[in-house]
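Supplementary Text 2. Reproducibility record for the structural model of the 386-residue chain.

All settings were left at their defaults, and a single model was retained for analysis rather than an ensemble. We include the record here because the model underlies the residue-level annotations in Supplementary Table 4.
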Amino acid sequence: MSKSISIFGSTGSIGQNTVSIIKNNPEQFSVLALVAKSNFSLLAKQVRQLRPKYVVIANEDKYQELKSLLSDLKGIEILAGFEAILDIAKIKCDLVISAIVGSIGMKPTLTAIRAGSNIALANKESLVCGGDFLIKEAQKSGSKIIPIDSEHNAIFQIFEKDNLQNISNIILTASGGPFFSGNHDLSKVTIADAVNHPNWSMGAKVSIDSATMMNKGLELIEAYYLFPIEIDQLKAVVHPQSIIHGMVNYKDGSTLAMMSYPDMKVPISYALSYPKRMSTEVEKLDFIAMKKLEFFAIDEKIFPAVNLCLESLKKGGNMPIVLNAANEIAVNGFLENKLAFNKIVDFIKTMLDKVEFLKLSSAEDIIDYDFLIKRKAQDLLLTKIS
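Retained model, structure tokens:
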């Protein structure tokens, strides 16, 4: 029997890889819904490939163009707008691919969890902003959260196989991004420089986060909510080859590592087929050709974002939400040439210093608060520009 799948963020990098896997394994999956932001032409192409029951485009201005491209297809309901996305999230299916970029993806993820759908989670902001609440909602509904980020997926695969009480710590690996060598004047970094990731092909936002290493800090926050560990058990190292994606150190001195070439089809296929595994066209590791695996400490002076994330996690309350919101605004500011690359983390620090500590009582409060903080961060960015 095939699994029913909904893909939220189908035209992004994760979504496109998911579509490719499903297209090549039509007997294993049926697609309930495809959801995208505004790329109506690619979305229409995906609809023709997968024939979902529902298709939603968030940008209502693109609705007519999408509808026109699909006018000859029957039996597919074409919708638009954020409320339509939430309506689709309420429909239970075997697995929802949560790959909408940014904190806006939290509400559809939460809605799908409450509906009892299992979640293949690529939207890190959902856990960074509301990890406690999402995990509690998943426990209530019976929804299983399977991380798609390569690092968390690696730890997930290892954790499933051993007694959690024997774990000493977990280690997430980082490629180091394009500026790990330290041979760059970060005040002069261009957009093209920052998105030029050495190992992974990703969207602009994730690529910038990789370049600042904010993504690794956010991933450590995610890991805290995904796995039953303490904050001081979270570690990260730079591993330029991106072959080992995550490691678990055990109390007896053993270390288990998950390894593969850097290809997002590996964690996506695992999430799609869980608890089984499926064949993919991904090349298998050739250890002779690989020759070496290197590991380095993260230079806190060059990449202060990692410690900033851990400090926010330790403070708790609203601090991770402020951190994430400020980062989104700062990255957008850089991509719009309004903020220098080397000022991104400084901007986030300023926001964290300006905001008072709060404890929020529900996931809905987090969503409202995130919107408020983004407005404040946007105002701060405008004062930096003027």
